[in-house]
Design brief:
The chain is about 25% helix and about 30% strand. With about 375 residues, the chain is of the alpha/beta class.
């Protein structure tokens, strides 16, 4: 048993954090729940679920028999996360604010608050694990490969990992649902949340349009021919297929031959278009036809703003990496350049590697950390 040590659990209103709190109480911890409010703008809109989530979190606390406190981190969130989010989009990149939120809010502002409450540890409902080995702490993938969230937590450092518990990291999602149902949690069948934390389910372009001025410009194909107009480069990301307004164009002539040369079935029919490049200097959006177009296949990348879970950066050598969340680990060679940037060269081409997103490094099940993608080279390109 845990001898009544105090653990503060981030209760989001979802089933994962609810079961985490229950498991910790069963293990003998003195558990306190904290509901974090990180966004206040348009709080009464149809897309913001924080009020509903708090009601769910409070109901969970009541069933489990723990106290719950409502804490407002909206000011910290706007300053540390949202401002950076807007800066990245305005610079033509595609950031991942959930990663920054974890590092700056859930495992910094929340951790500080929990320590003031006399907690020895904090806990969340993330699907990952922490292991202590030879006095160092390792971040491990969750046992459920379909739910592993270590990608989003790769910026956690030794101090944060040493104070954190992930109770559901050892379980599969189906088991978490079963436990919740068995003990009568009111949110046992609640749908998992999706999307960026402060945007929720709202249309992304509509949200971004409030904060970033749109500057329309041309959409061009790989041969430089104008085939449409975009609403502003900030509103598109590499690999994007939906919302381009050019879905009805048909490949023909040289384009059709190029598609057939790449072995695409149905070449000459309505092959989908994908965002491949954003030229900020000319305000031009470049699109290509076909999922495996060469302009979408990258052989290497550079990343900066590095953050490592271990006390020291990993040595150059063979590892695996993810350049987006729902992606299989990709074998690669790690090096550093003279500017201290991380350089990853992949065995197989990676699809639509996107500046602003995170490249996260793994050694088996151990998440080592990573950095923000600064640039990427197409397959076959050489480093400058």
């Amino acid at each position: 048993m845990a001898n009544n040590k105090r653990v503060v659990v981030g209760l989001s209103g979802g089933v994962d954090s609810a079961v985490s709190a229950y498991l910790l109480k069963q293990q003998g911890y003195d558990v306190i729940g904290i509901f974090m409010k990180n966004w206040e703008d348009d709080d009464d809109s149809e897309y913001c679920s924080s009020n509903i989530d708090f009601v769910d979190a409070a109901a969970v606390a009541d069933v489990i028999g723990i106290e719950i406190e409502h804490v407002n981190f909206a000011a910290e969130y706007k300053d540390r996360v949202f401002a950076e989010f807007l800066r990245e989009y305005q610079g033509g990149r595609t950031p991942n604010p959930d990663i920054l939120c974890n590092a700056e809010i859930k495992f910094k502002a929340f951790l500080d608050h929990a320590m003031r409450l006399g907690a020895e540890k904090i806990a969340t409902g993330h699907y990952c694990r922490v292991r202590e080995l030879h006095g160092e702490f390792q971040l491990l993938k969750g046992l459920d490969p379909s739910k592993d969230q270590s990608y989003f937590l790769h910026r956690l450092n030794q101090a944060q990992l040493s104070k954190t518990l992930f109770p559901v990291g050892e379980l599969h999602k189906t088991e978490v649902r079963r436990i919740a149902d068995e003990i009568g949690l009111p949110n046992a069948k609640k749908k998992d949340s999706t999307g960026i934390c402060f945007i929720g389910e709202r249309p992304f372009r509509e949200f971004l349009n409030r904060y970033i001025a749109n500057e329309p410009g041309p959409i061009k194909d790989e041969r430089g021919r104008k085939i449409g107009n975009h609403v502003g480069l900030s509103f598109y990301t590499l690999g994007q297929r939906q919302g381009l307004g050019i879905g009805g164009l048909k490949a023909k002539g040289a384009d059709m031959e190029a598609l057939r040369a790449r072995g695409l079935r149905g070449a000459g029919e309505h092959q989908p278009w994908f965002v491949a490049r954003k030229d900020l200097a000319t305000n031009t959006l470049y699109v290509v036809q076909g999922h495996d177009h060469p302009w979408l296949l990258y052989g290497s990348l550079h990343a900066d703003d590095l953050s490592w879970c271990a006390p020291h950066p990993p040595a150059p050598g063979r590892y695996a990496a993810k350049t987006r969340y729902r992606q299989a680990d990709a074998p690669c060679e790690l090096n550093y350049n003279e500017d201290g940037e991380l350089v990853l060269a992949f065995d197989d081409p990676q699809w639509a590697v996107t500046p602003g997103q995170s490249a996260v490094l793994y050694d088996g099940d151990v998440c080592l950390g990573g950095g923000v993608i600064a640039s990427a080279e197409l397959r076959g390109a050489t480093h400058a």
